[in-house]
C-alpha cells in the first residue's frame, strides 16, 4: 500500500493594512515642531494652520480614499508661502473661478425662476440669483484691486483752528528758525516799548510824582 506524502498547507499572505487617508503624516522639523511639543500642542498648531481646511477640502472634493489629507495640507501650506512671498497668481485664479461659479449660479437660479408658476417661487429664486450676481461682481472687484491696486496718498497733518483759536507749536521762551522770536518774547518786548518815550529815555514815574 502506497504511503501518502504529507504536504504542508500554504498560509495565505497577510493583507497589508489599508492606509488611513484621513490621518496627518507630517515631518515635524519641516513644520517647525520640536521633540518637547506634546501631541495636543502639535494638533492645536495644525488645526489653526491647515489641517481643518484640508479635511474640508477632502470631504467636498470627491476624491475619496484616493486623496490624502496630508497632501492637501502640503498644498495649502505651499499656497500660503506663495502669498507671503508676493506671488498672487494662485489667489487670482481662485477668485476668477469663484466669480465664474457665482455667475453660473446666477444663471441657474434665473432659469429656474422662469419655470415657476407662483409669484413666491419666482421671488425666492430671483433673490438668490441677484445675490449670486452681487457676489460675483464683488469678487471681480476684489480681483481687479489685486491686479491694479489703487495708489496710496500720504496727507501731511495740518493744525486746524476754529474761529479765533490761536495755534502755536512753539515752546514759550524758545526762538523759531531764522531768528524769529516766539510770541511770548514778542509780547514782553512790546510791553517794554510802551515804557519808553520817543527819544529813547525811560519814563521815571517817581520823578513825575515828586514834581507834581
Automatic annotation (TrEMBL):
This is Uncharacterized protein. The lineage of its organism: Bacteria, Pseudomonadati, Pseudomonadota, Betaproteobacteria, Burkholderiales. Residues 1-21, 170-190 are annotated as: Disordered. It comes from Rhodoferax ferrireducens. Residues 9-19 have a biased composition (Low complexity).
Amino acid at each position: 500500500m502506497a504511503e501518502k506524502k504529507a504536504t504542508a498547507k500554504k498560509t495565505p499572505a497577510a493583507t497589508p493594512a489599508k492606509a488611513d487617508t484621513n490621518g496627518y503624516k507630517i515631518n515635524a522639523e519641516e513644520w517647525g515642531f520640536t521633540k518637547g511639543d506634546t501631541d495636543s500642542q502639535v494638533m492645536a498648531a495644525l488645526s489653526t494652520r491647515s489641517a481643518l481646511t484640508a479635511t474640508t477640502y477632502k470631504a467636498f472634493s470627491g476624491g475619496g480614499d484616493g486623496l490624502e489629507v496630508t497632501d492637501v495640507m502640503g498644498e495649502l501650506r505651499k499656497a500660503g508661502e506663495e502669498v507671503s512671498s508676493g506671488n498672487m497668481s494662485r489667489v487670482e485664479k481662485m477668485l476668477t473661478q469663484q466669480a465664474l461659479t457665482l455667475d453660473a449660479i446666477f444663471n441657474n437660479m434665473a432659469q429656474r425662476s422662469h419655470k415657476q408658476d407662483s409669484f413666491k417661487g419666482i421671488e425666492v429664486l430671483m433673490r438668490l440669483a441677484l445675490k449670486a450676481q452681487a457676489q460675483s461682481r464683488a469678487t471681480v472687484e476684489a480681483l481687479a484691486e489685486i491686479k491694479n491696486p489703487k495708489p496710496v496718498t500720504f496727507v501731511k497733518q495740518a493744525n486746524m483752528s476754529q474761529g479765533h483759536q490761536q495755534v502755536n507749536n512753539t515752546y514759550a521762551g524758545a526762538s523759531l528758525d531764522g531768528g524769529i522770536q516766539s510770541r511770548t518774547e514778542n509780547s514782553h518786548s512790546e510791553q517794554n516799548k510802551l515804557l519808553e518815550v520817543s527819544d529813547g529815555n525811560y519814563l521815571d514815574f517817581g520823578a513825575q510824582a515828586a514834581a507834581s
